What does this fold into?
Amino acid sequence: MKLQLAIAALTLAAGPSLSFAQSYEQPTDGFYAGATLGMNGDDETTWRLLGGYQVNRNWAVELGYHDLGQHNIAGAPLDSTAWELVGVGRLPLNDRFSAYGKLGGYRSNSRGGGFDESQHDLTFGAGFEYALSPGLGARLEWQRYRDIGGGAIRQTADLDVISVGAIYRFR
It folds into this structure.
């Protein structure tokens, strides 16, 4: 299923390049908002809403809410959500395509199996962004949430998420 998700994202990114002949520069600053849909390491659906500010061509900051779906820690099925604040470093590869890395922190809440625990730790990831137009971009991304769980659960686990999404840049 993860392979199918990645193929769909690449098809989404590659298709519009045939219909856009114009060239333009990568965004240098401004606000943006976006959403992603993905899968966690247990093949459960995840989704995220995010807002960000592009400081310059290479740096941005994002605040997001992520429903991490259901996953298992210590044999207990848990539903987790997370608020995250991350810095984003972008490397433009050409006028439409960029690679990026993310690093920041999260605060999660995990419920299920009689547990209701909060945890905070490090999150990081990497991805690609393709500009469909000057204001709209498509993303393919991997992100890890370190040490989800804890507290009465008495165990933590890293949770990986692979997702596709779109961002809209306000101009």
Notes: Helices lie at 2-14. The chain has one domain: 2-17+31-169. The chain has a mean pLDDT of 86.
